[in-house]
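Anyone else keep sequences and structure tokens together like this?

Example one:
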Amino acid sequence: MKVLITGANGMVARAASKYCRSVGDEVVALTRQDLDIADRDAVIRAFRSERFEAVLNCAAFTDVDGSETDPSKCYAVNSNGVENLAFASGDIGSRFVTISTDYVFDGTNSGFYTQRDTPNPQGVYAKAKLDGEERARKANASSIIVRSGWIYGHGGTNFLSVLGDLLRDGKPIKAIFDSHGTPTFADDLARRLRELAELDLPCTFHVTNSGNGTSYAGFAEMACELIGADRGLLIPASADSLKRPAPRPSSSKLACLFSERFGLEPLRHWESALADFLSGK
């Protein structure tokens, strides 16, 4: 299968490129410099020239706090760009899979959010991602939306991705105890994106590693246990104490109503995935 992977420099895109190549796909991985997805004409030209069979959209503007002060940049990628890719995919009959976020929910549900729950995004980033979902569906009814959250992996720069290195270096870490989610290892997410492209069922899927979820502090504590780090390095902190510009859901755990019905096995437990990540696998 000839697969386009956008956002090629990103953590999930790199994982997806590696996996797709491992199963024999012809992978075209494009950075923003290669293809600005906010430029509709450029996207359409590229698609008509290359005739991709599947598109995995891993491009995103992920600066949640920066989105509050630069909403136009956020919407250009997370909304307009998604619409452009969806339209161009439909134009050439390509399968289209795009990644959305758990942040489309407001966090008032302490249990799991499923596809039955109504999104209620709070910040600019979250609103742009939901707008991207809606535009994709309108531009291409065959779009496959993948909501995920708490994504970490090799080469990542977010808290969950760098945590292990910080602990090994003996650096103290503020660990938020009152924010909960479902961790997702980028390698596992990448495999599921490819599976969904193969399945080709237009739907909104929630994709995370399995388990009951955890807090940032719980994730950090498990990391300490797995690598034998000193738990004394963890400094308990509340989400409010960080005084970040953008609102974030206090609980955004995801569960999928459809995956198993369509023959997709649950992803492995997040603790097992974390163990492999920390061991370098």
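And example two:
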Amino acid sequence: MKIYLNDPFKRNPESHRSLESLTEREKWDSLSTSKRIQYIWDYYKLPIVITLIILYIIGYMVYRHVTHKDIVLYAALANVNAGETLEEQLTDGFLADQQIDTAKNDMTLYSGWYLTDDPSSEYHQYTYATHLKILASIDNEELDVILMNKEAFDAFAQNGYLYNMEDLLQETDPSLYEKLQPYLVTNMEILEDNAKDMIYDSTLEYVSETTEYPMGIDLAEASMIKEAGFEDTVYFGIIGNSPRTETAVEYLNYLFS
């Protein structure tokens, strides 16, 4: 009998086994790294995708929890253009003055809010968007104090958005009330009117029921506002549904410090 030493089958009979006859382990061992990755992806893509989504959600929740800061006060500028220096005084300056831990707390200052009935004003196009922002902020209790010019002050007053500053200061800080009493400004709130009816009947005369009370503070003598050099008077008001009135009063005191 002849033996062929170079016959590969004689040396390794396993090399001629069919793919179907291989075990799963042998099939896996026979694959290259790239084919192994492709195999895993082809057969397990759905569980992999679901697992990655779950890990992302968990990671995002952990990140938000670690980096979350409580907002101690929401403030806004309406028809007031403050420079970078003043905005820093109105935010970081207040937090530092109150010795508030900025690692866990922060303050929000909305800017770029404009309210005007003058169609020729360059800011008239922003009025509608500002109305929406104001309504959303008040509804969500995310607006506490407002710094504004006279036109914006009138708009906030007429809609009944502002606290009676005399009552609030007398109740929360009588000494501050005595200090700021000369700067209290009265404005008018419209309780009821027929403005909507006049849309459908132009022959009607405008009729309204109003009330007046001190709902603003003239900031002309507030040091940082005075130094900013505004041409028009800037007024301060506290939003009527603010859940942070004590902090809002402290903010007012800070402006005059």
